[in-house]
UniProtKB/TrEMBL annotation:
Superkingdom of the source species: Bacteria
Transmembrane segments: none
A Pfam family recorded for this sequence: Pyridox_ox_2
Organism lineage string: Bacteria, Bacillati, Bacillota, Tissierellia, Tissierellales
Species the sequence originates in: Peptoniphilus grossensis
InterPro entries hit by this protein: Pyridox_Oxase-rel, Split_barrel_FMN-bd
Name of the protein this chain belongs to: Pyridoxamine 5'-phosphate oxidase family protein
């Protein structure tokens, strides 16, 4: 169903992909937009390793939710862990590409729990997370990308 990576020598084990998903704070999710155009947007996310799902949030209305409701297949990419190469000017970096289907978390208690975990990654304290959630949770939707396939590779940018 999913293609094998073309440059197989650059492929890294899945545990490297999971580490990068846990460490990074931002990535780009690509959705199927209107009239066949892709719709790619940067997002904050939380990777639940046990569930093998990426959680993110948004509002209850808008283009993102329309795209998801129309076709829930998506891809996601994040990259980082740059290392300066021996030549002193170019870098090695790792990237993860994820494919899967997006679902809205319908259970509000679970949505609150996952949104709190996501927010804890970005806010300096849980008291600040709770204050923001108290103000805005009723207007938020929590989504997850159920990972069907992911690859990780290390590339030399030069």
């Amino acid at each position: 169903m999913f293609r094998q990576m073309r440059r197989i020598k650059q492929e890294l084990p899945l545990d490297e992909a999971k580490k990068l998903l846990m460490k990074n704070k931002r990535g780009v999710i690509s959705l199927n937009g209107e009239e066949g155009y892709p719709y790619a947007i940067p997002i904050n996310y939380f990777y639940d390793e046990e569930e093998n799902k990426l959680y993110f949030h948004g509002t209850k209305t808008g283009y993102k939710v329309d795209c998801i409701k129309n076709n829930n297949k998506a891809s996601f990419v994040t990259y980082g862990d740059e290392e300066l190469s021996d030549n002193g000017w170019s870098y090695y970096l790792k990237s993860v590409v994820v494919f899967g289907k997006i679902e809205i978390v319908e259970d509000r208690e679970l949505a609150a729990k996952k949104l709190r975990e996501l927010a804890a990654k970005y806010y300096p304290s849980l008291s600040e997370v709770d204050a923001v959630m108290e103000r805005s949770f009723d207007n938020a939707l929590v989504y997850y990308l159920d990972i069907a396939h992911m690859t990780c590779k290390k590339v030399h940018e030069k």
